Amino acid sequence: MDDTIRRYLVDTLLIEFGDDGSAVSEDANLFESGLIDSFGFVQLVAFLEKTFDIKISDEEVLSDALSSFAKIRSFVEGKVAS
């Protein structure tokens, strides 16, 4: 799951994760850092719903549950487990 989400973000949004200064930390807010816009967010939600067979509610979309890689990973893990 972790690798699937990470690969999507790297391939689709060109986000590089890692510990060096040029990479984005897993806790960085993807919106505030300008790495994702509203169109990218819609694509991300569609990808997560299709790939992991989950439904993301309007309330969840409006929360900050999908604002960073770490939060996305936790959110999806919780949805898949329930």
Q: Key features?
A:
mainly alpha, Non-ribosomal Peptide Synthetase Peptidyl Carrier Protein, Chain A, 82 residues, globular, 4 helices
Summarize the helices and strands and which ones pair or pack:
Layout lengths: L1 H12 L24 H15 L5 H5 L6 H13 L1
Helix pairs in contact: 1-2
What does this protein look like?
- It contains four helices and no strands.
- The protein is mostly helical and 82 residues long.
- The protein has a single domain (2-19, 27-81), classed as ACP-like (Non-ribosomal Peptide Synthetase Peptidyl Carrier Protein, Chain A, Orthogonal Bundle), CATH 1.10.1200.
- α1 (2-13) runs antiparallel to α2 (38-52).
Tally of strands: 0
Give the terminus-to-terminus CA distance. 15 Å
One letter per element, helices H and strands E, the order comes to HHHH
Helix coverage percent of residues?
A: 40-55%
* Spatial shape: globular
Domains, number = 1
The assigned structural class equals mainly alpha
Stretches where pLDDT is under 50 for at least 5 consecutive residues are: none
Q: Helical segment tally?
A: 4
Portion of residues in beta strands equals under 5%
Q: Which homologous superfamily in CATH is the superfamily?
A: ACP-like
Give the class-level CATH name: Mainly Alpha
Q: Based on the structure given, which CATH architecture is correct?
A: Orthogonal Bundle
Largest sheet: none
Might you state the CATH topology name? Non-ribosomal Peptide Synthetase Peptidyl Carrier Protein, Chain A
